[in-house]
Amino acid sequence: MPILAYGDVFYVSITKLWHIYQTDQMIELILSTLAEFGLIREDFKHHRKISKMEKADGKKRPFQRYFLQPTSIMVISVLVIVTISAFIFYSYQRTSIFPKKTKREIAEITERMEKWKEKFGSYPRDLNELIGNNPLRQKWKMDSWNRPYQYAVTEDGKGFLIVSAGSDGKFETKDDIKSN
Asked: Mean pLDDT, to the nearest integer, of 67-82?
């Protein structure tokens, strides 16, 4: 076990207290939200109703008691809505946002390539030569789907082609995004 200095113990204690404080705030937020919607009272009424039914016929109803109470139904509904929303957003992002972002990035790279040619008289042999150690251009190694670009200079050296595989991840298909 590592030896902790006084400052480390203090930091660990403060961190634990902060997490407890945040947890208490979360519980307070959840309970106040439930109270505002009147769900705590509805849960109580629901439990009382199920208890009466259980006493009347002698059958236990755990599913009705716990999973069909108003709070459970609300939590399940929220989880379903959030899951569906996340799926829709992810699909939209892959089909609409990523292609536009990749086209803009290829246009930036193309512009930088032309400046390179003006300065050095030819296009770089590969993208890494253009990117160099510049931290702002490191993202140029991959497209929006986090796949590497294909880059080639024409045989006569007067042009180049940058290609993203697009959403399907396969080159030479109709969804490829190419430089002009």
From this structure: 85
